[in-house]
Amino acid sequence: MAAILLPTVALANGVSETFTRTSLLLILMITLADVCGAIFERLGMAEILGEIYAGILLGNLALVGIEFDLSNLLRSSEFMVYSTELALVLLLFIVGLESDMRALLRVGRNALAVATTGVVMPVALALAAGAVLGFGSGVQGWFIGAMLAATSVGITAKLLGDNGLVDTRSARVILGAAVIDDVLGILLLAVLASVVVSGEFSVLSLLWIVAKALLFFVGALLIGQKLMPSVVHIVSLNKHSSVWTGFALCLALAFAQLAHFAGLAPLIGAFVAGLLLDDVDFHVGEALQKHRLEELVKPISDIMITIFFVSIGAQVQLQALLDPRMLLLIASLTLIAIFSKGVAGYAVRGPGFDRLGIGFGMIPRGEVGLVFAAFAFSHHIFDAQMYSALVLVVLLTTLIGPILLKPRLQRF
Questions:
Q1: 19, 273, 282, 300: which is deepest, by most CB within 10 A?
Q2: Mean per-residue pLDDT for 143-162?
Q3: In the chain, where are the structural domains located?
Q4: Is 82-411 CATH 1.10.10.10?
């Protein structure tokens, strides 16, 4: 009865039905995501798992007789659609912000070898499994492989940090390789996204897309590094810390739009914007605040990214799991995800490394893998069944990775 009367009451008070519906939806999504995230953290798991689980609960209420189609509400609301796209931009901006390119150059050949192996093997094995099992042909197969290539930096880094092992040799290889994985994965996304948008699959068009992506990366970084110190100096004339939140958001959006104009995915521009700011020192008031930029962006990013992860879960259709073929797909891809990253640890050369532990540390997929899934689903590359299966694969690797890594930490 209350649900029926709410729009009427809202209109009587000069509030639109859209505002009321969207506000109630936001309250429900954020509250349940916070509760589930806190529960999962108490259980020693990543908070994003709880947020995705909240979305799965809300998106599958029909299974328990509650007629509430959250997936349709998310798709029909322009605000929710834009919020999800903005969250993707912020997510890649933060990944870029946390990626220190100079540090990557210092971690040496071992991190690069592990990262390269950890990208090539999942893609190759996913394409092979698709050919054998009859799923994921063409661009779809490449998107599945790219999803499995991404490694979650945050999940493994948190486990290593909690155990005081971040500065060990094996940990540095894991963290360096995970960041390189993300960079390679985002380059792969640039290529795949451009193929999807252009619809061209010829060798020449692929080479042009790769060249364009590399030119955008190099050009934006070179020009940005020349101009960014001056821009930062001008912005720093304002002594309020809030100006940096707006500046960071506008920079991410501006570079996302530049990437779009260049025929690339906007996410690529947001990632480059994060890389640019990561290398710049700036002041807020009297104190150096470079290390706090992530905190200044958090008021916006936390809410937007929570909405993104809930919407990711809401699109999962649990009834799809009743299909034995989907269960086979989930089991096969989970095994590929674990094996391909586990083997990547053995690309390390030299004494004093826990190779198996390094491989286990690369297993969790997370934010970047989910970005691939969301992009492919929104562009109709994945159907609902395939999307649901792949999100569950990401969840399983995020659960299994830390479980396998914990016993190996004493060898670090």
A1: 273
A2: 77
A3: 2-74, 82-411
A4: no
